[in-house]
Amino acid sequence: MKKLLFIIAVVLTGTTVNAQEFAKMDKSPMDRAYYPENAPKRAFEKDEAKQAAMEPQIRVTYSRPAKKGRDIFGGLLKFGEAWRVGANESTEILFLNDVTVGGKTVKAGRYSIIIIPTANEWTLKLNTGLDGWGNYGYDASKDVASVSVAVTESDTEIENLSIALYEASKNTVHLKIGWDTTVVEFPITLK
Questions:
Q1: Which residues on adjacent β-strands are paired with residue 16?
Q2: 5, 15, 83, 143: which has the highest count of C-beta atoms within 10 A?
Q3: pLDDT band at 81; cut points 50, 70, 90
Q4: DSSP assignment, residue 44?
Q5: Are 185 and 151 in contact (CB under 8 A)?
Q6: In 3D, which of 72, 77, 34 has the Cα closest to residue 56?
Q7: Which of 65, 58, 27 is nearest to 162 (CA)?
Q8: Helix (H, G, I), strand (E, B) or coil at 49
Q9: Is 38 a residue whose pLDDT tops 70?
Q10: Residue 86 carries which DSSP code?
């Protein structure tokens, strides 16, 4: 009987292992943006003061869909409707220290980013709903901060959704989002 159970266990284990396949390459690869930009490379810095200055303060994790000739804003993405800022999983921002967004203090932690785009203005909402797919589970009652900014136009077409974080002025970091010919910059005040 023990021998039979052993054989069944081996067969089932072998079947399970062989059944596991790697996922195919996603059409919208995941990427990260950091503030400061060089934060992931801080371990290479030998000077301790410079290394401390490179300590991450903000990180955005997002997927980068491609334009592929599509009409993006007002077409693929409807004006006035919530958007996850990317593809696949909800875009997530991590604050390693408290910050201020839209005049509200936001505690250090993880938040999803939701954008409500219009032709002239985008509204960014930080939301405590995490680990979702897209914005299908978006619940506005979980918003902790909101800020609206004017849309600007890029001189060149941006094929893949792109996000950057940079210091716009002392203690103010801009979350810059660009896709197609649209660019927006949301201010985040460091505490």
A1: none
A2: 83
A3: very high
A4: G
A5: no
A6: 34
A7: 65
A8: helix
A9: yes
A10: S
